[in-house]
Amino acid sequence: MTGLAERLAAVRGEVADAATAAGRSPDEITTIVVTKFHPAALVRELAGLGVRDVGENRHQEAQAKAAELADLDLAWHFIGQLQSKKARQVRAYAASIHSIDRQALLDALRSDETEIDCFVQVNLTDDAGRGGVAPAELEPFVERVLGTPGLRLRGLMAVAPLGEPARPAFARVREYSERVQRLAPEASALSMGMSHDFRDAILEGATHLRIGTAITGNRPERG
Asked: Residue 163 sits in which domain range?
């Protein structure tokens, strides 16, 4: 196996082990491979290894890769902070947007013609610059998402804060999810967990993992 295939197999094994430890089926968990700064050729290799879900957090890069790899059956997940002025362009190629966090995005993404999956990002820090809805504002914002044509709310997304244990943070997201499901019972998905903390995320109910370097290896130097 290539290094990429070995890393992918190792992560798949760890995901399965963590799911078993949590009393869950690995089939409940979608691993999104984050390919930021990696070339389209690597994404094509991943597709050959059975990967269908790919994550990007920069629109220009994601748009170019999606166009170059249009012959593949890939689901592109936009996971970065999204500018309102780029929202409709992202909607054109993405299967899902994981970073819905403000009214301007809802206005930009509304559509009477097609639906797109989305996750509301919750900010687990006191730093508003990190993106995400403050927990205290979650229910009113979710109600606005539910009232926006063209958006299908799947659940919540979060990034564990730096410098503190991940699992308690993910437990808070699970509690927030229970609040959201009182408004939208079908919005039970949890997009949380990255290369260094996905086991903790699985133990707290993650359904979508966003894993980059553990699978792709170190990112190439940017020119």
From this structure: 3-216
